[in-house]
């Protein structure tokens, strides 16, 4: 069986649409676990009234992405755990192919192809080649039709996508759950590194497509997004780089990226985002890892 874990935060309509798509299309045995991350409204009641058979786990505080998923793991019964954003839908069965991939034993975790629900043909994920050592930029080509290597070809990947990733239970038991210190962003990058370091391989499965709405929980160009992404990037460097690479990466983020971003936001009259960059970067430098 597959345990599907999704996090709901003030987004019960999206969560219900996701559940409805699985009810319509999916035939493989699964259970659905919705972790409500301390939503401010009546989200739990809304979901429960529509889908009483779904496991609803309510947290009394917002645990963030990793914390919410880790809470869901403790209630999961499946041999395979499928972490899924609540703002996605499927248009045909997806679980069987992903399970078959992990049953081979070669792969410890798999992410499917992710496409935009609203922009036809826009592919948001087709596998990553990892991040560069110092600048922490993707080694993969930019996402754009003219740059695709071959999104239709399944292959090994170095980073899973947090929007949709299936992991074997025995891998989680060996590697441990996601690190909860980030709260938002870079959790799947960090976890992917740990899974690979434990000797497992990660896979991108092109035959499975998940349709993603995008930026439903935290909007782009918002203070919270800018703060947490800057904070997480520095924390990632501190946790996942060693020796001189760690030092150089932190110097780059502190002395080059931070001033550049602050200047850019001040120039466009967004002092709130400039403040978020400043606070997030320094917080990431001194947060517990």
Which features does this protein show?
single chain; 289 residues; alpha/beta; Spore Coat Polysaccharide Biosynthesis Protein SpsA, Chain A; 10-stranded mixed beta sheet; 10 strands; 41% helix; 21% strand; globular
Task: Give a description of the structure.
It is a single chain. By secondary structure, the chain is α/β, with parallel strands linked by helices. It folds into two domains: 2-212, Spore Coat Polysaccharide Biosynthesis Protein SpsA, Chain A; 223-286. The chain has helices at 12-25, 43-50, 64-73, 95-103, 169-175, 187-197, 223-240, 243-267, 271-286; strands at residues 2-8, 30-37, 55-59, 80-84, 88-89, 107-116, 123-125, 155-157, 164-168, 201-212. The chain is globular.
Summarize this entry quickly:
The protein is of the alpha/beta class and 289 residues long. Helices cover 41% and strands 21% of the residues.
* Quaternary class: single chain
* Integer average pLDDT: 94
Name the structural class: alpha/beta
Known CATH architecture of the largest domain: Alpha-Beta Complex
Please write out the topology:
Layout (H helix, E strand, L loop, with lengths): L1 E7 L3 H14 L4 E8 L5 H8 L4 E5 L4 H10 L6 E5 L3 E2 L5 H9 L3 E10 L6 E3 L29 E3 L6 E5 H7 L11 H11 L3 E12 L10 H18 L2 H25 L3 H16 L3
Helix pairs in contact: 1-2, 6-7, 7-8, 7-9, 8-9
């Amino acid at each position: 069986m597959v345990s599907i874990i999704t996090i709901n935060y003030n987004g019960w309509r999206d969560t219900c649409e996701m559940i409805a798509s699985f009810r319509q299309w999916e035939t493989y045995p699964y259970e659905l676990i919705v972790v409500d991350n301390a939503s401010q409204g009546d989200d739990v009641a809304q979901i429960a009234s529509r889908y009483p058979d779904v496991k609803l786990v309510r947290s009394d505080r917002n645990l963030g992405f990793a914390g919410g998923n880790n809470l869901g793991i403790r209630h999961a019964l499946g041999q395979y755990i499928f972490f899924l954003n609540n703002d996605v839908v499927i248009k045909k069965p997806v679980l069987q192919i992903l399970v078959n991939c992990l049953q081979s034993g070669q792969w410890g975790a798999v992410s499917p192809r992710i496409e935009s629900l609203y922009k036809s043909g826009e592919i948001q994920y087709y596998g990553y080649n990892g991040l560069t050592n110092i600048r922490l930029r993707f080694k993969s080509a930019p996402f754009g039709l003219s740059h695709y290597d071959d999104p239709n070809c399944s292959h090994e990947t170095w980073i899973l996508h947090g929007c949709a990733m299936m992991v074997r239970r025995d891998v989680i038991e060996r590697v441990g759950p996601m690190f909860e210190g980030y709260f938002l962003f870079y959790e799947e990058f960090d976890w992917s590194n740990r899974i690979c370091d434990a000797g497992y391989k990660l896979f991108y499965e092109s035959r499975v497509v998940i349709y993603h709405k995008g930026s439903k929980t935290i909007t782009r160009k918002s203070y919270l997004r800018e703060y947490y992404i800057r904070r997480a990037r520095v924390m990632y460097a501190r946790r996942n780089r060693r020796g001189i690479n760690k030092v150089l990466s932190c110097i780059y983020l502190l002395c080059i990226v931070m001033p550049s971003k602050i200047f850019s936001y001040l120039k466009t009259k967004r002092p709130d985002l400039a403040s978020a960059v400043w606070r997030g970067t320094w917080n990431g430098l001194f947060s517990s890892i």
